[in-house]
Amino acid sequence: MSGATSYWCELAWLGGERATSGVVVEVEGDRIAAVESGVAAPPAGAERLDGLTLPGFANAHSHAFHRALRSRTQAALGSFWSWREQMYGVAAVLDPDSYRRLARATYAEMALAGITAVGEFHYLHHGPGGRPYESPNEMGEVLIDAAADAGIRITLLDACYLHAGIGPGGAGRPPDEVQTRFSDGDAGAWAERADGLEDRSGARVGAAIHSVRAVDRESIPLVAAWARERGRPLHAHVSEQPAENEECLAAYGLTPTQLLAEGGALTDSFTAVHATHLTRDDIGLLGGARCCCCFCPTTERDLADGIGPARELLDAGASLALGSDSHAIIDPMEEARAVELNERLASGERGRHGAAALLSAATVDGHAAIGWPEAGRIEVGGMADLATIRLDGVRTAGADAATALEAAVFAAGPGDVDRVISAGREIVRDGRHAEVDTARELSESIAAVQGTAG
Ligand SMILES: [Zn+2]
């Protein structure tokens, strides 16, 4: 979309501790061209955005196909490990067509929640039995197309996934039947395939080490070097479950964080996803290297993972991002408040993370973690991503300029997201997606996958 559009925001968050009244945002193409505050009424020709306008949210950790498990995994219960078996059931039956439909609907659900960019941690690379597709990155390409359909940006974090677990002496155990769809065989083959992916408008490429369970000690430095040499973000699942720590310590005498540090993975372009069960030394390593830690509280509570040390990580120098991961729900406001509310229950203290800091995690720090440092702030030159939250709905009514941020973080939900502009393009209006009949497409794409999964 070209040309200039002018928006008048009743309230907007410009990065401080409070919302600002009467903010005009001029958009040219995909960028913010001007920001003026203290404008009492909409200028002629400006579109009016009532409520609180935020920068679009970044969903820094997603596995799009897990959306098909919502409600089913809550019915089945069990453990993280039995949940994983259910998840593999869906992974086993997806093909490029069914994955594109499911991802398109899932990303549209994200747009409806105010999300304008997603970090897709992608490991379902190959066909059944591990047979590469004719175009080896076909599954990654359908995710990029699905994000474009939904009007949000994507960072495809292409994950190296080689092993079923850490075997005796650190030798990786061979992948099982479903995991063969994830594995390239070795890190060199992973790098060769990942080199076939290219950035384009609205899509960037990053790397991921699935976890220390799936990538062995010798392969970690290869993936880390690939990301470093190309200036790509690097993500890894880190210490989500105590069992991972125990296996890693038994095999190597190192925690997962220490093993990743040894392999050169920990830089300011690295994001540790979950970072739930950490030692003091781990926290020091992640903070000292200025890593990001991506918490996924609604998934972590769904899977009974635990509560990670967000306050300690921030105090040590790390930044914080948020992700909906398994999509138990897709609600960036709930992810944000859960960081604070979980810590209140665990610590007996209130106010370890204020509303503005939690919004930073959900916006600017999340966008940076997935390689979009120009996004996440309403400022000149920034990406024109705006998400407007109604302050006249049943959950938010009564908030004013002084409490609008708290209303957004501690009370609002996706149903309060009224308008979303992503890279200058309006993708949600009056709470409806402009292109995707989202509930119907979710329902049909999930039925198709679950029907086959039996
Ligand atoms: Zn994950």
Q: Can you characterise this structure?
A:
This protein is of the alpha/beta class and 454 residues long. It folds into two domains: 4-56 and 376-433, Roll (Urease, subunit C, domain 1), CATH 2.30.40.10; 59-369, Metal-dependent hydrolases (TIM Barrel), CATH 3.20.20.140. The chain contains 16 helices and 18 strands. It has an eight-stranded mixed beta sheet with strand order 3-2-1-4-15-16-17-18. Strands 5-6-7-10-11-12-13-14 form an eight-stranded parallel beta sheet. It has a two-stranded antiparallel sheet with strand order 8-9. Strand 17 (425-429) and strand 18 form a beta hairpin. Helix 2 crosses helix 16 (438-453), helix 9 crosses helix 11 and helix 13 (355-362) packs across helix 15 (404-410). The radius of gyration is 21 Å and the shape is globular. Bound molecules: zinc ion. Residues 61, 63, 121, 237, 273, 325 line the site of zinc ion (ZN).
